[in-house]
Structures are given as structure tokens and as C-alpha cells.
Design a protein that fits this description.
single chain; about 140 residues; alpha+beta; 4 helices; 6 strands
Length: about 140
């Protein structure tokens, strides 16, 4: 099972403030535990939304780009971890040990989709794409 564990943004992260040395050490210690346990797939901090953008689909299927910053700071993500664990309970234990408050969401797996939505052909295509991504150094 894969889970995304997100640290939500706040006024400081949206202002571009970097974490203190103490916070960096706590996060690095935590990341080290995750690596030693073999559950960490990715962990990244994000720049403030002022450096980002959103795309929106317009009537007719075109795209519009909306530059940040975005108003709802509490709904933005400031950083994340992607973990592969055996169960929701294991994920809960990792989340409780995290030095920051987090929001956790399970990532869909191919078996979550009905056969009429994810056909065997599309499932195989997705599997091949993930394998290629891993060979290129991606998370997959």
C-alpha cells in the first residue's frame, strides 16, 4: 500500500521561510528511520505557491494558466513523503512519529479500478510505463 503524507502550508512556508536547523535535523532523523525501514519512496519540500501555477480546463477543452500565490494557505501542501507500507495501521504509526503534523491519503493501486475502467490492456500499459520510469530513476 502506498500513502502520501503531506505537511500543509502555513503563513511562514508561503512566505518562503526555510525551516530551522533543529527542524531540518528532526526531519532528516525521521527520513533516516523511513529509509532504514525500507518504506520511503520519496520526500520533498515545496516552494511557496507564489512560485507555482495551476491549469484550468476551459469550455471547449482549452487550458488556462493561473499563476500563484493561491489564497487558501491551509489547503496548500508545503511538503510530502510517499511511503510504501504493508497496512493502514503501519502508516498510522509512521504518521504519529512524524515531527510535523500531517495529512495522510492512500494512493490508488491498479486493483482499485473496476475492469471496465482499467482494462487489462491499459493496466499492462501502466505497468510498463511505471517500470520505464523506475529504470529512468523515477519513483514509479
Amino acid at each position: 500500500m502506498r500513502f502520501l503524507m503531506a505537511v500543509m502550508a502555513n503563513a511562514d512556508s508561503e512566505a518562503g521561510a526555510m525551516p530551522s536547523q533543529e527542524v531540518i535535523k528532526e526531519m532528516t532523523d525521521y527520513n533516516e528511520e523511513l529509509v532504514k525501514a525500507g518504506v520511503l519512496l520519496a520526500a520533498e519540500g515545496l516552494h511557496p505557491s507564489s512560485k507555482g501555477f495551476r491549469t484550468e480546463i476551459t469550455t471547449g477543452g482549452g487550458r488556462t494558466v493561473v499563476d500563484g500565490p493561491f489564497a487558501e494557505t491551509k489547503e496548500l501542501i508545503a511538503g510530502f513523503w510517499l511511503l510504501q507500507v504493508r497496512s493502514r495501521e503501519e502508516m498510522l504509526e509512521w504518521a504519529k512519529r512524524c515531527p510535523a503534523p500531517v495529512t495522510v491519503r492512500q494512493v490508488h493501486a491498479a486493483e482499485d479500478f473496476a475492469a471496465d475502467v482499467l482494462t487489462p490492456e491499459e493496466a499492462e500499459r501502466e505497468r510498463r510505463l511505471r517500470e520505464e520510469s523506475r529504470r529512468q530513476g523515477g519513483v514509479g
